[in-house]
Amino acid sequence: MKGFTKEENSWIYYDWATSAYSIIISTAVFPLFYKASATDAGVRAADSTAYLGYTISLATFLLAVLSPILGTIADYQGFKKRFFSFFFGLGVLFTALLAVVPHDQWLFLLIVYTLAVIGSSGANIFYDAFLVDVTSKDRMDRISARGFGMGYIGSTIPFIISIAIIILAQKGTLPISVTSASKIAFLITALWWGCFAIPMFRNVQQRYYIKPEQRPVVNSFKRLGKTLREIRKYRALFLFLLAYFLYIDGVDTIITMSTAYGTDLGINSTNLLIILFVTQVVAAPFAILYGRLAKTFTGKRMLYVGIIIYIIVCIYAYFLKTTTDFWVLAMLVASSQGGIQALSRAYYAKLVPKENANEFFGFYTIFGRFAAILGPLLVGATAQLTGNSSSGVFSLVILFVLGLFILSRVPEPDSETETSC
To answer: What is the DSSP string of 8-26?
Structure first.
């Protein structure tokens, strides 16, 4: 891509690589595959949705506990790439292994999925932290948004292939079952993710780090403790994290549980796959647009826009009844999903001390991951208590409202000195 350095392009293309996992595994094909597996085993629809939410919560809890510790260790020279590589390998491996789990083993399927989630999310901790290594502070909004935009564009290719295989299998054009077609989609995801991550491994290096020292693990815990004790020095940063904790909870919950929610509403799998595909296509230009508008209106104001749109999404979801309604909901999500994630990542990257980026992105992850525990639990519990998934989505409004309020109290990054951040 013109106008970007080799390092920036290589970093951006990892979003292109991993977004196949986001749409096929997190959002579209796997949830449908899992719901069908659970239904065939006699599990009630609301219960299977709840179990998926609990599984996501467990995976994110484990990662949330580990992320600040690993992030602090990764600030030492050479460790960031090692940790990134480990979680990347874990994610790709267990994504591929989803294809070999017998269809009737829905519980085992969730176990393998848990490890795939840990691998994907773990790799993203260090991938996000590499943003400070590949570009300058004034380009972070643009580069982060471009990553999400390219991710949405790139994910459509393996998604189209996967949808085509599944639909052709449904129609009998391909001599395979829909179950086998879904498993092929899992393999395509792992292959796509692995191949397009190569530029990231070849061209992106850790430029900001702490020099190696004796007993790095022990000293990492000491540095982590010192940061927590001196938390008042990082007021803007941790105030932002609190706001992020609240609003990203709703964003992640809507992303990871949208397909299960649509299934509970009676929308068939073909329509869901088409809706999710169009959502990816629409989200790409909007993610890039958010990055450009942030240069004119500031990233913070564009975050306000994204959060307000998500409040509208939650309210609208409560009254959702038809497939057309779901289309409207999906397009609203598409208009802000990538933008709110990209600008949050860039806003935070501007606040953190570069040499301690991994430690602070560990906190970024722990706030985001603990938020991702609360949201699915809230939706799952509400769905079981009321027998209505729409009530759970509506309950997320309070998280967006609180997040918006706290974000309004966070100073713009440029108004804080680097030493105080």
So the answer is: HHHHHHHHHHHHHHIIIII
